[in-house]
Write a structure and sequence with these properties.
370 residues, alpha/beta, Rossmann fold, 7-stranded mixed sheet, 4-stranded parallel sheet
Length: 370
């Protein structure tokens, strides 16, 4: 059971959320070129296998033309950071007004990434017509680097891990006039923008709720991948707010399980990580603004190995969802929970359950694990 951690206290924990802000975020995203609601795919066969009422996959394999959900956070985070610097920008500004403000201020965007966040920041820079500099750790797959470069960004490989890349991106952004660091994890003296990025993910969650409502359903459990924890933060706050009591299952690679380690120890700390096919989840430190929310609101934390993840990729692809490893991690975790946990252990997976799996990235190249 070392791969599963249960927090019974999360059942009764409540978070605060701003419906008005979430509406503003969704309205902003709808202005982005090529915006469309991502599909919520029913999985009747999976539901039968798991013995639950319904399973749905929120398929983020083509969000605004990118193979991941990250553009939702990167776009809103960049916009809010720009608005903080431009006094005349309201939160319902047009993209043209934002672009004019960026050029007037002489801004360029900076970020670190080991997956899709950097590509999303690069895309937002391209939309606004400004330069982007993206920093990646040494283990980042070359295909990931090329995809970022294809957005027009300059990619720099940093010796070391993800945390090292974040530190370099932050330092480099401060060396130039107009350097704006758009990062999805918080650290000392850097909390505002990560908070904005978390707000940006509310669009995905509002869509899920609206799509289920159209079928007369409500989610009882939501399964989310964890990297630095920003998406998990958004999911947990949403699932535990406004009268909702949706179980939250968090999943990480066993080689980069920073949240799982912290939950088990009860201590906020960094861990050493190693290579995984779940590149975008290869993070050694939970964002410190997300840690309190995750500690209190995550019902179950699960770790999976690369082989389990690969098998979930294959299963989803057979069912018509072209997920990459980070996306398929949610399915691998759900299967493990279904086998190893029962109702009395703190999560509802039974004939009344409506389970939503967040598939956060589309199909991509990776080296198949032995």
């Amino acid at each position: 059971m070392d791969s599963i951690y249960v927090n019974p206290a999360a059942k009764t924990w409540e978070a605060r959320a701003s419906t008005d802000l979430n509406l503003l975020v969704q309205s902003f995203h709808e202005k982005l070129p090529g915006f469309g609601v991502s599909p919520l795919v029913p999985m009747a066969e999976l539901a039968r296998d798991l013995g639950v009422k319904a399973v749905f996959v929120k398929d983020e394999s083509s969000r605004l033309g990118l193979p991941a959900f990250k553009i939702l956070g990167a776009s809103w985070g960049a916009f809010r950071a720009i608005a903080d610097l431009a006094d005349n920008l309201s939160l319902d500004s047009s993209l043209e007004e934002v672009s004019r403000a960026v050029r007037r201020l002489g801004l360029s965007l900076y970020a670190a990434t080991d997956g899709n966040h950097g590509r999303a920041v690069a895309r937002m820079a391209r939309i606004l017509g400004v330069a982007a500099s993206i920093y990646v750790p040494a283990f980042t797959d070359v295909h990931v680097q090329r995809n970022i470069e294809a957005e027009g960004a300059k990619v720099t490989v940093v010796p070391g891990n993800y945390d090292d890349a974040v530190a370099v991106a932050n330092a480099e952004s401060r060396k130039v006039s107009g350097g704006l660091h758009v990062q999805d994890n918080a650290f000392d003296d850097y909390e505002k923008v990560p908070g904005y990025i978390i707000e940006g993910y509310s669009t995905l969650l509002r869509e899920v709720e609206q799509q289920l409502e159209q079928q007369g359903l409500k989610a009882t459990a939501m399964v989310t991948p964890i990297g630095v924890g920003s998406l998990g933060h958004a999911v947990t706050a949403y699932c535990k707010s406004s009268g909702r009591q949706i179980d939250v299952v968090a999943v990480e690679p066993e080689t980069a399980a920073c949240l799982h380690d912290n939950l088990r120890s009860g201590e906020f700390r960094s861990i050493e990580t190693s290579k995984t096919i779940m590149d975008g989840m290869n993070c050694g430190t939970v964002s410190h603004i997300s840690w309190p929310i995750l500690r209190q609101g995550v019902d179950v934390s699960v770790t999976i190995c690369d082989r389990e993840c690969h098998e979930a990729v294959e299963q989803l692809q057979k069912l018509g969802v072209h997920a990459g490893p980070c996306g398929a991690a949610s399915l691998a975790a759900t299967k493990k929970v279904a086998v190893e946990l029962k109702d009395e252990h703190g999560i509802r997976l039974n004939g009344d359950s409506v389970v939503v799996l967040l598939s956060t990235e589309g199909s991509r190249f990776y080296v198949v694990p032995e």
